[in-house]
Structure formats: C-alpha cells, structure tokens
Amino acid sequence: MDNTFEPKNIIVTGGCGFIGSNFVRWVAENHPETHITVLDKLTYAGNPKNIAGLPDAQVELVVGDICDGELLDRIVPGHDAIVHYAAESHNDNSILDPEPFVQTNVMGTYRLLQAVRKFDVRYHHVSTDEVYGDLALGEPRRFEPGDPYRSSSPYSSTKASSDLLVRAWERTYGLRATISNCSNNYGPYQHVEKFIPRQVTNILCGIRPKLYGTGENVRDWIHTEDHSRAVWDILTKGTIGETYLIGANGERSNIDVLREILSLMGQPQDAFDWVRDRPGHDRRYAIDPTKLEEELGWRPLHKDFSEGLAQTIEWYRTHESWWRPAKEATEAKYAAQGQ
Ligand code: NAD
Ligand code: TDX
User: Fold this and answer.
1) Structural domain includes residue 67
2) Which ligand is nearest to the Cα of residue 134, counting in written order?
C-alpha cells in the first residue's frame, strides 16, 4: 500500500526551540511547496531569531500555548498536519519544578490530540528515547520500538505519558498518528542549559566546564539535522500507528565528549570541575534505528561526530549575541544547585 503523504500546510509546535526550529528551517529549504505555521509560546527556551529570515509567505509564527484549546480551534482548521515538538525539555529543570512539565507535555499533548480528532489532521508526535528508561553501561542491548516504558525523571515520565495518550487516541479514535523517539541531539541553536552548549560557552566565558557524577554516563548523539530529515520521512512515508526510533549510532560517555570539546578548544584535558550528580541520573541511552533504516530508507548524513562537534563549537564561537542573554541566569541556577 502506498501511504505517501504530501503535506501542504503544517503546524509545527515548538518551532522556535532548538529542534523544532531546525525542522522548520529544513522544511523551508527543502520543501518550498509546504507552508508552515509555527505555534510557540516563546518560553525561556523559545527564540523567534531561530526562524528569522525565512520567507514570510512560507513561514508564519503564531505566539500561543498548546494548552489553549480555543486557540487550537481557531488555527488548526485548514492545516493538513501537526508536527508536535513543543515541550518543557530539560531534565534538571523538571527535577526542580515538575509542574510546567506536566502542564505542557501532558495537558498540552492532550489538547492537541483533541484538536487533531476534531479536525481530522495527520499528527506526528516527537518524543525521546528517555521514555525507555536507561540501559546498563557496557551491555550490548539497545532500545527497540516495542520495549516497555520505564522512564526515570519527571521530564521523561511526562514525555512517556504523552506518548501513551497518542497511542490510545490512535487506537481508540483512529487518529492518523505516528510517534518518533530520538536520542540526544546536538548542533547549533541549542539552549546553553544543555550539556554540549553549556561546556562550550563556559570555556568561551572562561568558566570551567562541569561534569556530573563520574562522567561515565553514556548518551547516543545525533545531529539535529538528521533528526529533522527522519521526522519528515516518518511524516510523509511512515505507517500510521507506528513508533520509529531515531538514532545515529553515536554512543559516547559524557567524559569522552567533554574531553573532545576541551581538545577542540585548545584546553588541557583536566580543565573541568566534577560536580554533584543529577538525582536519578540515567546511565546509558542507545538506539537501534533498524526499523527507520529498513522501512523508510533513512540514513544519517552527519556520521562524523568530531566534525559535527567542531562545527557546533564554531557556531557558538561566532553567535555570542544569540547565547549570551541566557548564560548568566542559567549558570546562576546551576550554581544554586551545586552544579
Ligand atoms: P527546547 O526546550 O529547545 O524547545 C521547546 C520549544 O517549545 C520552545 O520554543 C518553547 O517556547 C516551546 N514551548 C514550550 N512550552 C510550550 C507551550 N505550552 N506551548 C507552545 N510552545 C511551547 O526543546 P528541544 O530540545 O528543541 O526539544 C523539542 C522536542 O524534541 C521536545 O518534545 C523534546 O522532548 C524532544 N526531544 C529532544 C531531544 C534533545 O536532545 N533535545 C531528544 C529527543 C527528543
Ligand atoms: O553540565 C552538565 N554536566 C553534565 O555532566 C549538564 C547540563 C549535563 N551533564 C550530563 C547529564 C547527561 O548525562 O550530560 C548528559 C546530557 O545532559 P543534557 O544535555 O541535560 O541531556 P539529557 O538529560 O541526556 O536529555 C537530552 O536528551 C534527551 C534532552 O535534554 C532531552 O530533551 C531529550 O529528550
């Protein structure tokens, strides 16, 4: 059966954040026939500069909350798909104050699903590998789409909850929905609260990088552009009701990533501080992307992590005016937590 879908007029929620804005820029560049309405609340993590310069005729920004059902009733009609990125996305914030996570990630997804039902649009749900919990260090197993949900943090449990709502709405109400669970993204425009931008901008500011716990925790890194291409493939060619895992075989321990940053930035290998570990810190994430590769023919284009990391560092070096406004408050918040 040919399930090719050609979206002409999509809503991208969270399109002013790190990954959502990459998707918006990628679609604008590669699919000029597709109109994009960005729905974004512009929280501390949303920045309209991330989508500045795109053609007005193709990309429109609506500033608003996904939890606002009346707003959704007004803007969803006339669109043929919603790609849902909007979320509270930072684990450390979720430990300090889980409430906005429950509100946006669970309630916001519920409201979107109700609008999707009402107006019968295609829906793609962007989620995380963290819903599967963590793996032991050194074991060969990787996450697979049918694995049980075992989320550990307030953030990942709200994302897991949202995934389960999507699965239920697809099965019960027949929504045309797909889900993707992706591993850790890196690249330009990522908020300075996250691991790689934090360390890079610390070095640029003359502050020592901060490593949690033993530094042995493993993350599976993927360039955000490869994530965007995968989401487009799933939206346009994926099978309704299915879950796809997105990953680029990029497993690395945090200390290895930090050492690479230090070396790329000309710093001694021991020029960092060990700081208090994150409570409940997941040990290892690893994605088996076979289903995405075999069913949809997707392959990562950014295969050389060191090269992608060097380009990312260069972007932060040359875009200080983008990250500087958030830096001081972010570090003050970490310092108050002993991190
Ligand atoms: P981000 O924090 O950089 O951006 C989130 C965006 O959502 C911001 O623009 C923010 O203003 C917007 N937003 C937040 N609450 C909103 C609300 N109530 N209504 C409308 N807009 C709202 O996040 P990110 O890192 O770009 O992550 C995007 C999505 O990808 C999230 O769903 C996240 O769970 C998922 N994801 C992230 C990663 C990663 O490595 N960062 C990996 C896998 C999946
Ligand atoms: O200063 C730090 N030092 C440190 O050692 C920070 C900020 C983090 N870390 C560690 C914690 C993690 O093991 O680095 C690793 C990566 O941390 P984050 O960038 O906070 O990412 P993580 O918690 O792995 O979650 C990310 O990937 C999955 C995204 O933030 C989520 O939105 C996504 O779902």
Assistant:
1) yes
2) 2
Catalytic positions are 129-130, 155
The total number of residues written for the chain in this structure: 339
Whole-prediction pTM value? 0.98
Query: Which among 119, 243, 133, 242 has a CA at the least distance from the CA of 181?
Result: 243
Pairwise CA distance, residues 88 & 102, whole Å: 9
pLDDT of residue 2: 61
**CB burial of residue 249 (10 Å; 0-12, 13-18, 19+):** middle
CATH code of the domain covering residue 98: 3.40.50.720
Cβ atoms of 175 and 121 within 8 Å: the answer is: no
- Total tally of structural domains belonging to the chain: 1
Question: Per-residue pLDDT tens for 213-264?
Answer: 999 999 999 999 999 999 999 999 999 999 999 999 999 999 999 999 999 9
Mutate to test the pocket of ligand 1, among 12, 13, 19 (most ligand atoms within 8 A of CB): 19
